[in-house]
Every structure is written in structure tokens, then in C-alpha cells.
Amino acid sequence: MQALILEQQDGKTLASVQSVEENRLPEGNVTVDIDWSSLNYKDALAITGTGKIIRNFPMIPGIDFAGHVHSSEDPRFHPGQQVLLTGWGVGENHWGGLSTQARVNGDWLVPMPKGLDGRKAMIIGTAGFTAMLCVMALEEAGVRPDSGEVVVTGASGGVGSTAVTLLHKLGYQVAAVTGRESTHDYLRSLGANRILGREEFSETRPLEKQVWAGAVDTVGDKVLAKLLAQMNYGGCVAACGLAGGFALPTTVMPFILRNVRLQGVDSVMTPAARRTQAWERLVRDLPESFFSQSATEITLDKAPEYAEKIISNHFQGRALVKIA
Description:
It contains nine helices and 15 strands. It has 324 residues and is of the alpha/beta class. Strands 3, 4, 5, 6, 7, 14 and 15 form a seven-stranded mixed sheet that branches. The chain is globular. Pfam families: ADH_N, ADH_zinc_N. It comes from Lelliottia nimipressuralis.
């Protein structure tokens, strides 16, 4: 099998495509022949060594993949069946999807939803799955299309671009926040009604003018603090990322004076029933145009190059990795 292997030498992470014996695959009761994977921000952190994502080397990164079952000791899965996987620590502490084959726990797999194939599933991937969970969180908090404008930060990234698309399709007025003027046309094509520069979110007071009914935040730190200060009474922020930092320099005032909700969204350990619900929603709520607008297809050997682009903020949308 061929795989992107991460190794550590003199404190630096080295990434290279290598041939690996299948008997080196980790423990698991289902072996999957991988057709497609993708590059997420977490993958980029791991591949470049920018973030302390990998603790044990060597490691095959790739936190999601889609393929077909090669062999199974789990009665829920049979050879040839189409499956997908996101999260569960795969690509972090268990060899992941940037490989021609993976061996995993059957509990981590999702049967391919009707209406999807492997390529489309990986255009969605962890990023799109997370975006759907964020949208569901806003809905469950009572944020409706007629509640007011919803803002999405980090809008040109994988989570952000999918969130913009979903919210627009569902009838929301969407404001997109980005640090790159070159992405404005792309974001408008996804459905953003207006676009704001990241610099507008650099400074904040404990409370500001009420602007947003809801928000999907992938950035954290000062950007999240600004959003909270600008939320409408009863609004909700679905927070799923920390691209700008893990601090939160805010006060309790938005929460106790405006009844604002800060809803954390985790996609890694999402229970099976919630996963199924989210994937069914993705099949129903994503327009067909999304799959042609948002994906750049690359080969396995290009993964380190594109990981660098993601980290340096020189990439928009989704990097789809063709494995088979």
C-alpha cells in the first residue's frame, strides 16, 4: 500500500509518500480500500508540524476518508460496501485516510448515505460535516431565517464555505468574514449577501451594537469575543474552530444581559445517531453546484504542498485527495 507517512527528525515533521506493508496497519475489525480523502485544517497542522496534532510517529494523517470495505469482522459491514469516516482520532493517534488502505473500528464507520458517492462525501468531509453540525446547533437554539443576519467567520475555508452554502440554501441572510479580497467573488457565488474584512473584528468592547442573530465561528480569540459582543438578544454562536487562537477575551455581559448562547461544536466524537442525522441533512440541503464550486482535486503526493497553502491562508474551499 502507498501512504503519506509523517516522521519526526530533530524536532521537525517530515512528510513523504512511501510504500508500507499492509501488516503494519493498526488494530481494527474493518479494513477499507480508500478511494478519496481530503485535507482539513487539522491535517495541514499535522503535515506541516505547525500544531502538536501528532504525538506518536510514524503516523499516516488524514482525519477523513471514503472507500469500500476490503474485509470485515464486523457483521454490519461487508466487502465492497461503500463507507466513509470522519473523526474518532483517525489521522491523529490512529493511522488515517491519506493512504490506499486503512484498518479501523467498525463503530467509527458510516455507511455511505443514499445520494452520495465517495468523491462527493470527501468534498464535504470533516469540514462540511462540522458546518452542518453548526447549522443544526443554530436551528436548535431557535435561530431562524427571519431572526436576522447570520455571520460566518473564516468563510473561505472548508467549514466556512460549506456553512455559507448551507445557510444560503436554507434561506438565511449570510455575512461572510474573510481576510482575503481575492475570495470575495467565490463567497458571493456560494450565497454570501455581504462580505466583511477580518480587520473589523480585531478590537471589541464588552457589549456593542446588536448585529447578528447567529454566527458560525471557526476562528476563536478576539474574533469570537467581537461576535459575542454584537449578538442580538437571544442569539447563538456555534463555535467550532481556533484558527485565530484558543483564548477568549470576553466578559459575562453578553450572556447575562442579552441571553446569548455560546454553543461549542465537536465533530470528532459525535455520536452515531447525530452523525447519521447530519449526513442525511447534507444530502438534502447542499445544492449540486457546491460540488463543482468548492473542490480542488489533488493527488496524494501533492498533500504536503497543499497543506502549506492551507496553513499560509493561500487556499480556498476544499482540497480533495484522489487516492485510488
